[in-house]
Amino acid sequence: MVNDPKKFRIPKEFTLFGHRYSIIIEDDLFERENCYGTADDDEKVIRIQRKKTVIKTYEDGPDKIIKKVPIELTDETIVETYYHEIIHAVLDSLGEETISENEKLVNMMAKSFLEIYLSSNYEEEKG
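The structure assignment produced for this chain is given below.
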């Protein structure tokens, strides 16, 4: 790994196709939405989970026993989530809602963007 995901900076806002998007980093997104990130094309808002530990709740077994399991989010997961939501924003802005709903495709694109970022080499700055 060439680039450190701890040094990756998620912006507070950006412009996409002439529209200003806000990015909100939240501590309880996973607990509320059961996901690490969301993208709202109407509101032009992307939300990303901040905390490193979230609690996943699920029913297990025939008795449907509720289990709560802590999940550690890595810095890589947070960067990947950022890319994932950006891809949704781009596809939705292009009117490609059907493609945007293809979570497998969006996930693989986000993973590829993460790999590109982590493995990128840069020329030395001269100056």
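Interim note for the steering committee: The beta strands are 13-16, 19-26, 37-40, 45-49, 53-60, 65-72. Residues 39 and 89 are 6 Å apart (CA to CA).
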